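ok here's the first one, seq then struct tokens
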Amino acid sequence: MLSASAACRRHWSSALRRSTRRHYRSPVRTNLTLEDLGDLLDKPLVAVLATLRMDGSVLLSPVYHEWRDGGVNIWGAQQNVKVRHLRHDPRATILVAESDPPLRAVEVRGRARFIEQGVSETALGIVTRYEGPEDGAADVEALRGADIIIRIEPGDIRVWDYADEFSTG
């Protein structure tokens, strides 16, 4: 007779094998272009920003963003930990992904730079996408003068989806 922990390991091992078989048969489409993603970057999806801590470990942070002029803009407080990390080491990765089929996603890796001019206008454009005009304006006003735009332009970009798996044809 199997112990409870051995039975649990056996169950999860079997589930993992089934999941892995399904995954590797999945027709993930890679080497796509941003245009292949359609409106993904226009949606108010919370992105995940990866920065490097002082000890070299990775910090993942949810962020509001916008894609504009070939790069990603992120609004934040000048004293935020993400900004401090990027001032120390400007390497950054941002992931924008949807959780509904066809599971489109883009990963942008590059170096952050900081924009200090026109911050409130850019911030309002970003925050309004997520919170609406009234709440967005209030949030931007509350941080005015203590905020900054983080700009990440692609050094490398990866784009993928699972459109073939979810196609109806």
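and now the second one, same deal
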Amino acid sequence: MQNKARDEELGCFFDCCHRHGLKITPQRIAIYRELVKTRNHPSAEEMYRTVRRLHPNISYDTVNRTLQTFASVGLIDVVEGIGGVRRFDSDRNPHHHFHCRICGRIIDFHSRQFDAMEIPDHIRKIASVDSKHIVLSGVCRRCQSKQPALSCEKKIIIKEKHHGKNRRQH
């Protein structure tokens, strides 16, 4: 079953490349195959390290430009981390993301509620919306279990004490 799904994804890859006039090179195939295998939203650097095992002479620039090209033709999505590096997502099915602000992990999730959200009228007046992705930000369970629970106010006080300040800033 997994091989059939991968074959279908590769078929979509070939079709998309042909539609957009992109050459189908061994490097592009390898980058796409490796991206489809993972669901952890890798960065260009992570993809470079992975693909380099198969193609030792490939450059970081080739991997990065290829990922950007794939995104520009709609093969993959770019997932912007909050203040972090650009990450990539090959899952083109409707889904949303949770971004952990501690470890940076991006977790896919599905929500019928979010899928059913209406586009506000003021947005419809200024733009045509093609897709909708909700990104929630917070602290994942793994990071919560590693850190004592502190409120934002307590964190501010602790930081101020480390900097020699005695008063709270608002």
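notes on #2: The chain has two domains: 1-91, 93-170. The two ends are 56 Å apart (CA to CA).
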